[in-house]
Amino acid sequence: MKKDFLQIDVTKNYPEFRLEARFTVAEGEFFSLVGPSGCGKTTLLRLISGLARPDAGRIILDGRDLTTVPVAERKIGFVFQDYALFPHLTVGGNIEYGLKIRRLPADRRRERTKEMLALFEIEELADRRVQDLSGGERQRVALARALAPEPFLLLLDEPFAALDYGLRRRLRRELKELQTKLGFTAIFVTHQQEEALSLSGRLAVMEAGRILQVGTATEVYSHPAHPFVATFLGDANLIPCTVQTTPEGLKVHPRGGRLCLLPPGQEQLTGPHLLMVRPEDIVFTNEDPVYTGELVTLEYLGYGFAAEVKIGDGLVLKVLTGKEMDYALGERVGLAFRPQTARLIPLPT
Ligand code: ATP
């Protein structure tokens, strides 16, 4: 497996937007780009596919500099949110289309189309027109069409966004299984954190044209390097604090709370930081709480309660409990968390 199969180091300037991206994707990796609308995900895919040219930098795929290679010669497959299937062609015709462009002989084209129809379990749809298909069936055809010519790289731009939640989850699982079986390299764009966390080997979290962090799903969820990453991938309490490195560990003074001792990390930290604690890692307690405050909201979720506790000085902490809830709105409560679950994040520059 080549670790630097795809190397991206590009800059693209639009009048009101600048994209700067630098990362690598390994051969056979399922890599996601996740970030809010307008952060530059589609622009980045367009640069990789050749639909747009970078203003500076290079894109290298399997050792070959793609920067000046035309779209059709890049051997990159594309799957879009709106499927972009050809309405005048049948399902089989759509799958065969890319093979014709690659000038495969007719018998090899038919054989490959059959293989793809079988792989996606859509043999019975082969002669149907694409406008007569359901959303899920269309997306299977779009994936089969993109994979038929055996691309070096598959780019997927929010492919399941138009589908309902249940179908999206099913197709997502199917895609992951297929990717593991066939081993193709893929870049999957989504603005949904759940999709990115559940699908990817590694993911890049983007904001406003920048990549803030690249890592595995657990790395970026549990060890966010930036406050935006912490809040984008889930609910997070970000508490201003000051840090001191001591021989016993990191002494953390969270605003409005009691001093905590965090296990020593790799780094020698000092000065102002943000202390990130996920709501699911905070518990109500009367014994030696880190914080005390007033329970100001309580929402029943079935599997537990979402609560907010007002500490004062503008600080409100979110707590996600289990099924038990011994406190009522307006009560004074104590809160604590295990130091191992808290993370220190540098203040953004
Ligand atoms: P979404 O999730 O909504 O699809 P995105 O993260 O894919 O968003 P992009 O489509 O890459 O975001 O757009 C990033 C920014 O670049 C936007 O502000 C957009 O207006 C701008 N942009 C994209 N293409 C062009 C263009 N051809 N000319 C000028 N500005 C552009």
Protein model, in words:
This protein is of the alpha+beta class and 349 residues long. 24% of the residues lie in helices and 35% in strands. The protein is built from eight helices and 20 strands. The protein has a six-stranded mixed β-sheet, with helices on both faces. The protein has a five-stranded antiparallel β-sheet with strand order 13-12-11-14-20. Strands 15-19-16-17-18 form a five-stranded antiparallel β-sheet, with no helix packed on it. Strand 9 (202-207) and strand 10 (210-216) form a beta hairpin. The radius of gyration is 24 Å and the shape is elongated. The two termini are 37 Å apart. Bound molecules: adenosine-5'-triphosphate.
Give the helices and strands, then pairings:
Elements: E1 6-14, E2 17-25, E3 30-34, H1 41-49, E4 56-61, E5 64-65, E6 76-80, H2 91-101, H3 106-119, H4 135-147, E7 153-157, H5 165-182, E8 186-190, H6 193-199, E9 202-207, E10 210-216, H7 217-222, H8 227-232, E11 237-246, E12 249-254, E13 260-262, E14 271-277, E15 282-284, E16 291-300, E17 305-312, E18 315-320, E19 332-337, E20 343-346
Helix pairs in contact: 2-3, 2-4
Main features:
35% strand, single chain, binds adenosine-5'-triphosphate, 349 residues, alpha+beta, six-stranded mixed beta sheet, 24% helix, five-stranded antiparallel beta sheet, 20 strands, elongated
Strand order of the largest sheet: 6-7-8-3-9-10
Number of strands: 20
Low-confidence stretches: none
Number of helices: 8
Order of helices and strands: EEEHEEEHHHEHEHEEHHEEEEEEEEEE
Bound molecules: adenosine-5'-triphosphate
Radius of gyration: 24 Å
Q: Between the first and last Cα atoms, what is the distance in angstroms?
A: 37 Å
Structural shape: elongated
Could you report the average pLDDT, rounded to the nearest whole number? 90
Helical coverage, percent range: 10-25%
| Helix-strand makeup class | alpha+beta
Biggest beta sheet summary? 6 strands, mixed
